[in-house]
Design a protein that fits this description.
By secondary structure, the protein is mainly β. It has one domain. The protein is built from no helices and five strands. The strands form two sheets. A three-stranded antiparallel sheet has the order 3-4-5, with no helix packed on it. The chain has a two-stranded antiparallel sheet with strand order 1-2. It starts with a strand and ends with a strand. The protein binds zinc ion. Zinc ion binds next to loops.
Length: 62
């Protein structure tokens, strides 16, 4: 099951949309390049088990 969520780039602050595969787990982290400035963000994804709401924290990678 895949859905989309938004996060703000840790570098430039612009909003990005990312695909989250909920079947990958309730807590996930991976690196994704910002669609605006192309710098790498570490995304920490938390899925609420009841509502399937997604929260994403972003941090500097590298
Ligand atoms: Zn950026």
């Amino acid at each position: 099951m895949q859905t989309t969520s938004e996060y703000h780039c840790a570098f430039c602050g612009e909003e990005n949309t990312t695909f989250v595969d909920i079947s990958g787990g309730m807590q996930q982290s991976y690196i994704e390049d910002c669609q605006v400035c192309c710098r790498p963000n570490v995304l920490y994804i938390r899925v609420d088990e009841d509502t399937l709401d997604i929260e994403i924290d972003s941090d500097y990678a590298g």
